[in-house]
Design goal:
The complex is a heterodimer of chains A (about 280) and B (about 300). By secondary structure, chain A is mainly α. Chain A has one domain. Helices cover about 75% and strands about 0% of the residues of chain A. Chain A contains nine helices and no strands. Chain B is an alpha+beta fold and about 300 residues long. Chain B has three domains: about 90 residues, no CATH class; about 100 residues, no CATH class; about 110 residues, no CATH class. Helix content of chain B is about 45%, strand content about 30%. Chain B is globular and about 70 Å long. The two termini of chain B are about 35 Å apart. Classes of the chains: A mainly alpha (about 280), B alpha+beta (about 300).
């Protein structure tokens, strides 16, 4: 047992909360001061998102590993982890695009592909969790899941066509589609996660779904600010930009921390906060 | 209400509990036949001795007898001193006392007119199961024992300083001067019925817990359901109940004396189980899981749980 493992779970958790706060503070200082030479400013800012997303994805992967292949919760956490890993790759790709294109960031990038794949995996994680609770038939399950996904796609298509016809956006149709799809898919995740958090209300199992709710809400806000052009990709000194980006990073960190708490729940049982011995059950 | 055999003269004494073993040894040497009652620390233990040997020992709760081991009576009392009441029973009364302890509590207790006793005795004589009837007046008591659908096989009448048995006892009972009496009827049917109910309740409890734990494990995985099992078993061990929850299901070898005490124990275990599950998946979902499990139970188990509800 190393020194880290000999600490009480609650102490270890508090250390991680401290690290997350320190990362957030450092991010704000770097973001607002704009003191780093190009391209390091972008590398640090976008790297922070990728690291936070990767941290969350790593913890959720460890949760997935806690379940044997035959156990029913395993697909939930497998899909959740894949969703987060997709978003991590999306953040990395986004960061690379930011370095390459700088101010001329294209309206569509390779990152969007990974974000969309991530959304589908996260929707699948929610659906798997619902399946465990409500036991729908196979047909009902896939029918409902495909209805939600196809419904989101149809609404995004209609939204993109509307924006194009009304000339609200001068971008390409696909770009309009993406701009509509993100808030809608976030809304879908927000509602799904909120309903699950409510189903588990008062229980520790609600935490990861609450975290996904916070994350999807923050991402939805980000998507709305971007599409309404309140958020500017150029220049980092704007307070709306700062708040939006801090909120986005915080959402990843909160997701990681709440999933860490969930991992401790699986390791040490529901009373892990008061647990003195660090042995795994 | 007067205790049974209260009209038999009894010797009472206070003793330190560590002297009880030597007292029982003395009774063994004296070949005493009778009832010895030990009271102290809120407990009331009773043991039936035949020729000095303990035949049956109980912890009494009102008229209900919870069987306990014949050995270690002294350690069964949570006090250093106790009151001891020793009643020497006539041979005729031994079977009746034993039956009352084994079959108790009475299946029915009612007030009757003494003049109605012949008709009641006629009714009891036509019933196939074994019965003991205890008739209590202010100044006397009577006992009738029926071994199936026959006239009473044992009868005796007790009043202060007077014991009448058999036909003489029956005649005295029927001619007792007090107009009303309290009748308590003990029967083996109750015992058999109780045993059936205990088995049904045990099976229903096991099925409900198994279903609940399976559903919970499906939601949270084996690790957390193992923690739940540890907690369940810790509560059972703390209460000295021979009930364990493993991955194979509920193992229950606990002998409860009556369905009510079984129900209370099962209710406590189930409540603790549900509290622990609520910590993890929330009370709302635990309610849903419980409801689903109750619906999926076999009709017989559902029937039992309607009679003896375990989950609120």
């Amino acid at each position: 047992m190393n020194a880290h493992q000999s600490l009480k779970p609650w102490t270890r958790f508090l250390i991680q909360v401290g690290i997350a706060c320190a990362v957030l503070l450092a991010f704000m200082v770097v973001y607002q001061s704009e003191s780093l030479p190009s391209p390091w400013q972008d590398v640090i800012i976008n790297g922070s998102y990728a690291l936070a997303a990767g941290w969350a994805a790593f913890i959720i992967t460890r949760i997935w590993q806690m379940f044997a292949p035959t156990e029913q919760p395993r697909p939930v956490w497998g899909a959740f982890a894949l969703g987060l890993w997709s978003w991590t790759i999306g953040e990395i790709v986004w960061g690379i695009y930011a370095i390459i294109y700088g101010d001329a960031f294209p309206p569509l990038s390779g990152a969007d592909f990974f974000y969309i794949v991530g959304v589908i995996w996260l929707a699948l994680a929610l659906a798997y969790q619902y399946r465990q609770i409500y036991h729908p038939t196979r047909r009902q399950f896939w029918g409902m899941l495909s209805s939600v996904l196809v419904g989101t796609l149809i609404l995004s298509t209609l939204g993109a066509s509307f924006l194009q016809s009304e000339a609200f956006l001068t971008d390409a149709w696909l770009s309009s589609f993406i701009n509509t799809f993100y808030p809608l898919s976030d809304l879908m995740l927000v509602l799904g996660a909120l309903l699950l958090a409510r189903t588990f209300s008062g229980g520790l199992w609600a935490r990861p779904w609450l975290a996904l709710f916070i994350f999807a809400a923050a991402d939805g806000l980000y998507a709305w600010l971007v599409s309404s052009e309140l958020y500017s990709f150029i220049g980092g000194g704007d307070y709306i930009n700062l708040m939006t980006d801090v909120l986005y990073l915080s959402a990843y960190l909160v997701l990681a921390l709440l999933c860490q708490a969930h991992l401790y729940l699986l390791h040490y049982g529901p009373r892990w906060r008061t647990r003195h011995t660090p042995e795994v059950l | 209400m007067k205790r049974p055999f209260s009209f038999i003269g009894a010797a009472e004494q206070d003793l330190p509990t560590h002297n009880l073993e030597s007292l029982l040894e003395r009774y063994l040497n004296d070949a005493l036949t009778g009832l010895v009652e030990f009271s102290g620390g809120g407990e009331h233990l009773i043991t039936l001795l035949i020729a000095g040997t303990p035949i049956l020992s109980c912890r009494m709760q009102e008229l209900r007898c919870e069987r306990i081991a014949n050995t270690g009576l002294a350690t069964g009392l949570p006090t250093t001193r106790c009151r001891i009441r020793t009643s020497i029973l006539p041979t005729e009364a031994v079977h009746i006392a034993k039956a009352m302890l084994e079959w108790g509590p009475p299946v029915e207790i009612f007030t009757a007119k003494t003049s109605a006793l012949p008709e009641l005795i006629h009714q009891w004589s036509s019933q196939s199961q074994s019965q003991v009837i205890h008739i209590l007046w202010e100044s006397a008591e009577g006992y009738l024992r029926f071994a199936g659908a026959t006239s009473p096989s044992n009868t005796f009448y007790l009043t202060t300083g007077q014991l009448r048995t058999e036909q003489d006892g029956l005649t005295t009972i029927l001619n007792h001067p007090e107009t009303s009496c309290v009748v308590m009827r003990y029967t083996t049917v109750q015992q058999e019925h109780t045993q059936e109910q205990l088995i049904s309740l045990q099976q229903a409890f096991g099925a409900l817990v198994n279903m609940l734990v399976t559903r919970y494990a499906n939601l949270v995985g084996r690790g957390l359901s193992n923690t739940l099992m540890l907690e369940f078993n810790a509560i059972a061990i703390k209460n000295t109940w021979q009930i364990r929850l493993t991955t194979a299901g509920v193992t229950n070898t606990q002998q409860f004396t009556n369905p009510l005490s079984a129900q209370q124990s099962y209710q406590l275990l189930l409540q603790e189980l549900r509290n622990h599950m609520s910590l993890v998946v929330g009370a709302r979902l635990v309610e849903t899981l419980t409801r689903e499990a109750l619906i999926d139970l076999a009709p017989e188990a559902q029937q039992t749980l309607r009679q003896y509800p375990l989950a609120n």
